[in-house]
Input
Amino acid sequence: MIQIHDISKLEFHHRQGGQFRWITISTLMLAIGTILHLVSPSVAGITPNWTIATYCVAICLTKPTYRQALGIGLVAALVNVLTSKSGFPYGNLISEPIGALSCAFIVHYFSFLRFRGHSLLPVITGIVSTCLSGGVFVTILKFVMDLPMVVYTAGMLPLVGIIGLLNGIVTPVMYYPALRLFVSRGVLDSLEEQMVISDHSIFDLKPVREGLISLEHISYIYNKQKTPVLNDINLNIHKGDFLVIAGESGSGKSSLCMTLTGAIPHYFGGVMKGMVYVDGKATTQTTISDLACHVGMMLDDYDSQLVAMTVEEEIAFSLENQGVNPKIIKEAITSALDKVGLTEYRTRELSKLSGGQRQRLVIAGVLATNPDILVFDEPTSALDPEGTNAFYQLIHNLNTRYGHTVVIVEHTLEAALPYANRMVLIDHGRILCDSGVETVLRYMYDTHIYVSAIPHVFACQLKLEEMGYNIGKAWLSTELAVQELQKLQ
Ligand SMILES: Nc1ncnc2c1ncn2[C@@H]1O[C@H](COP(=O)(O)OP(=O)(O)OP(=O)(O)O)[C@@H](O)[C@H]1O
Output
């Protein structure tokens, strides 16, 4: 593991999207492999194993996770079972997944192996995966068909070795044209682009400061943009915080939230400098779905997060995708509905819910994975004052009663600030002030930054202070102002 001494210089380059590239490319490659397998002539019973060669090409090109590689191996196995001329083709169901997994292992750990600037992965995976997969296949065949040992050792195993060497030739021969084709169609990055796309798995990344989330020297440029929208952001979010992020439109609030969920850089791409640590783990070394178990986010356009027909189906959706046990899903639905006060709506269709109820449902969906941190981006923009108050009561309850840490981007500060213990003011992608609510509001007033957002009642108190009156604690809401004024009587 490589130690990083100056985290502000560490970059992560990533192109937007691309999560499903491995499916597109492996499907296409396996189709080519199947055709070649069916039509290629064999010389003295020897022919390259086209299926293995093509999935090695796909895995070298897309670097899938082990789970994805297993999927590729199983599809290859099914294709082989259906097209094999062998007496016992079912051994493929074990040998092909092993071949694909070994290929993924080599791609993950040996990507640094190069010869004159060319990756050696296609050659190595072609040989090793073929020998491993073929070796397993013939071993199964030997035992199932009860073949003599001499046939196995003197015939089958050497043949596997020869086909492995053949595949060490055909895999790179297919790899480079495939790379050129996919780059020219915009499906893959060029080799030059890949050189700057960072793989952070080689770095030893640990947060310097403690915190549930720790942002260290974060700067960020969106994909294909030139100007950074976040500039050297340092922020620590602690367990139990109720943090409000405020700033002018376009100051970078939403982008900051996206770094907390890992959507930046994994989904939006671009260039991120510095590091975000969630629960001690660097987000560049974690996937968005793993991060979703720690950080749940509700977008301003929360309706776009709804995908199912009924309330319980909606909450179950993300858990089912993660393969969670149905019994646990049922319990999670009950608990999430209870937390947001929608228990009686469990079987209701989404089209029969009000706007506020749909928003609560999105929150329930987020809560189902029990994340420590809840992030809300302009949650009240579509709510009336009553709905806004009800929303903040709910969030306050989740924060104080259930211990969820809350981060909210909000323009309507009056509603949020009475519940917040902390506020961050952001301007042109920089944090200008990070402190208690009253301190940040006073900073905004004194520096004339985003003054229009200061709650009227607090602005009134500040004006009175300028006139020489000193009226107790901060008037963060009308109720607090009335309380302080009553004390004066
Ligand atoms: N997907 C994107 N690609 C390129 N630039 C983007 C993208 N999303 C946002 N930006 C730019 O990044 C800057 C910060 O935007 P961001 O949405 O983070 O600000 P904001 O403070 O949340 O704004 P608002 O309060 O209006 O929602 C803006 O200049 C915006 O144009």
User: Anything to note?
Assistant: The chain has a mean pLDDT of 91.
